[in-house]
Amino acid sequence: MTGFEIQRLSFDDASVASMPALHERFEDWPVVYTLDDGRSVYVGESQSAANRMRQHRANPDKRPLRALRVIVDETFNKSVCLDLESTLIRWFQGDERLAVLNRNDGITNADYYRREEYRETFEDIFASLKAEGLFQRTIPQIENSDLFKLSPFKALNRDQAVAVEAIMDGLVEDLRAGPRHRSLSIVQGDPGTGKTIVGIYLMKLLADIAGRRDLEDSDPDSLFSDYFLVGTQELFVGLRVGLVVPQQSLRKSIEKVFARTPGLDRVQVLSPFDVGGDPGEWDVLIVDEAHRLNQLAAQAHGTLTKRFKEITASLFGTLDPAITQLDWIRAKSRHVILLLDTAQSVRPADIGPAAFAGVIAAARADGRHYPLVSQMRVAGGNDYIAFVRALLSDEPPAQAPDFGGDYELRLVDSAAEMIAQIAAKDAEHGLSRVLAGYAWDWKSRKDPAAYDIELGEARLRWNSKAVDWISSPASVHEAGSIHTVQGYDLNYAGVIIGPDLRIDPSSGKLVVSRADYRDRAGKSGIKMRGIPTTDEDLLRYIRNIYAVLMTRGMRGTLVHVVDPGLRERFARALGAAG
């Protein structure tokens, strides 16, 4: 289908004025174009490139750009151009060569006739632009990067677009109600449904609306164009907005993406402690991975436990043990948006499902609860997510469903063989890592020469970095824990299910081996409140951990199971020899 051409012009008044005479498709044909100055890039699509360039020349933000490239193809239509525009924006964002100047006021993921064939053309267009120096990385390198995976320019699917539009409509209503009005919204979904994408997209959309200076770039057909109009846009100017991310590693990754994104480079990415300890207030706080917010319990460090008590006392005048970090956030912000999956809490300190039940019910009653159901991460789709959760329950499936050949799920009897296969996957596809349950001591933390996980011929160390481990060079040779991978995507995951999760031979049910679970904070209970972690509690945490680990791989998951009884269960369900 490759029949495109790229017309190259200087972006100056004379060249723009001559466009109607240069090409017959510059006045009435759908095209995609790029504008850049060697440091920044803007990507657009238009039915009339000549008219659009005249508008851009009148815009002080676009006028300094120097080079114009117009991509013309006789087979292009509006749908193709919208798709190519959003694809190029995401590739530029993930490449880091140029700063992307675009807004994201309506990028949605819509299917159209012969889309897969056009995608091949997109790759040819990328190759041409890369040959001219606009990109520095390959497409696989770009798409394996955090800047791509956590990009605010992700195209929204239907569920996500509905949620974002409803949240924005609610915010407009809330802001018009005045400064005393408060609200709580919840976006809830399984792993891979794109909760983080919704949160980051909302942050960029809010920043774009607040920073809009004119309507020159507005597309009246875009999904969110109404929020940029006079009478609505002013509501968002001057708002204090923040993104709360409880997990340190994911928070740091998002900070890096925001620092590279115009409009988000000054937006705050916060820990719950940052929120609670700040003397000011927020207008809007979006909380990603809200299931990892904490209640009063021993924190990762003693200083944080002390700080938890100080913040609670400062905000509420009491040390009531029922007060949680969610209460901090609701006290500090007029409008709160939670991105939530209660099946992903993994420690006693996490706010549990029962504590979230009330706020979920209230959000539903207010019409502020937005479910995400479409699977975006795992090629096996929702069937795979349901299969994993059933496999880790006391009602295991008799066999795996047909994932349509799109997803590779295999049981590997040898840990060493699985590690070797994941290394081969990484060499071929990139971003393939070994993950494990916390069933081995972290000896290498104090002795770098020691190995933590030893299974037959396999020897591994735990992650040597707590922050951005997946992207570190050493990660290919190490094992990642729940705390380094929750919230991230991989191409392939190799998951070691340790001896902490077993089948009771007498009952045939899942049980935990408390002695083999090495996360002390994960099994010690909440001592300061006299709340123990029962075996039932611990089983829920460990099952949640393995469900998270087994839903990181977009293309496939290889599994090695230590307990013979559980391995046999996996073998029966997968039709493998075990």
Structural description of this entry:
This protein is α/β, with parallel strands linked by helices and 578 residues long. The chain folds into 3 domains: 5-143, no CATH class; 158-372, Rossmann fold (3-Layer(aba) Sandwich), CATH 3.40.50.300; 381-574, Rossmann fold (3-Layer(aba) Sandwich). Helix content is 37%, strand content 18%. It is built from 20 helices and 20 strands. It has helices spanning 13-17, 19-22, 49-57, 78-95, 115-131, 139-143, 146-149, 158-176, 195-211, 248-259, 272-277, 302-316, 325-332, 353-365, 381-391, 415-429, 482-485, 520-523, 535-549, 564-574; strands at 5-10, 31-36, 40-46, 67-72, 99-100, 183-189, 241-244, 268-270, 282-287, 333-340, 369-372, 408-411, 432-436, 453-455, 458-462, 478-480, 490-497, 501-503, 510-512, 553-561. The strands form 4 sheets. Strands 12-20-17-13-16-15-14 form a 7-stranded mixed β-sheet. The protein has a 6-stranded parallel β-sheet with strand order 8-7-9-10-6-11. The two termini are 46 Å apart. The mean pLDDT is 92. Residues 28-103 form the GIY-YIG domain. It comes from Brachybacterium equifaecis.
